[in-house]
Amino acid sequence: MKVTTIEARDLPEAWFLCVKNVMEHGREYVIQKGSFETRKRKEFDFVTIHIANPGRRPLAPDVPEGVTPPTTQEYLDEYVLYLMTDNPSPNEDYTYGQDLAPQMSEVIRLYKKWGADTNRLCMSVGSKNSLFQYRKEEEVAGYQASSQCLRLVDTRISEGALHFIVYFRSWDLWGGFPSNLGGLQLMKEYMASEIGVKDGEIVAVSKGLHLYDYTWDLAKQVLRL
User: Fold this and answer.
1) Burial of 120: CB neighbours in 10 Å, binned 0-12, 13-18, 19+
2) pLDDT tens column, 178-188
């Protein structure tokens, strides 16, 4: 596997550098099973993205005129509630908030009680049952199962700041990355304020960060190719 490391100042630069790198060096293949089967993706084998100042505004990336932005600040203000509250709609298999909301309040409580020097406060998403959702797809014709893409939000307080280390098993660089990281950043800012520390960095890792073929032309416009 090729391991790619990306260093970025802020969220918009992280997105731009990932788009550039995956378009130039990503592995191109046809999806055999998953979202948009039979279509093509360009994908990193494994990528680590270190974002030094994820709280720098704007959180949403800027795109050339004529390209619909992948996210907006208005959407991020709504999306963070999805991460921080347990309120699934009837047609959803899951929400991240179902898992994150109760853990988030506990992480805040324990950091305030124990202090910064602990490795215990890692928030998980999904469970051993997540994989078995695909059995319903096998049993029910036409049903498309899904399981959580975000699987881990680990935390660290270092030098008086709260940092996030997040893992995505699969990650849509166009339709997911900007909203996911923007929402997680807003969540981190809230948690840091509640704990009484500064807002810190984000390290994001994934073995499935990708661009679908229907966004390649948009990516070229962003890169001005």
Assistant:
1) exposed
2) 999 999 999 99
**Residue whose pair of structure tokens reads 């990306």 in the numeric block:** 6
Please tell me the distance from the alpha carbon of residue 10 to that of residue 54, in angstroms, as a whole number: 5
Is residue 123 within 8 A of residue 99, CB to CB? The reply is: yes
CA distance 224 to 205: 27
Looking at this protein, which amino acid is placed at residue 108?
A: I
Residue type, 8: A
Q: What is the pLDDT of residue 135?
A: 75
Here the tokens at position 209 are 């960060």
Encoding tokens for residue 166? 């997040």
Residue 87: per-residue pLDDT? 74
Q: Percentages helix, strand, coil for the chain, rounded to the nearest 5?
A: 35, 25, 40
Residues 23-80: pLDDT tens digits?
999 999 999 987 888 899 999 999 999 999 999 999 999 999 999 999 999 999 999 9
Chain-centroid distance, C-alpha 220: 22
Angle of CA points 152, 191, 168, to nearest 5°:
20
Kindly report the CATH number assigned to the domain that includes residue 185: 3.30.572.10
Residue range of the domain that includes 108: 3-223
Q: How far apart are CA 11 and CA 73, in angstroms?
A: 12
| Structure letter (DSSP) for residue 195 | H
Count of domains forming the chain: 1
Asked if 158 contacts 200 with a C-beta cutoff of 8 angstroms, the reply is yes
pLDDT tops 70 at residue 168: yes
Q: Is the dihedral of CA 112, 121, 14, 73 positive or negative?
A: negative
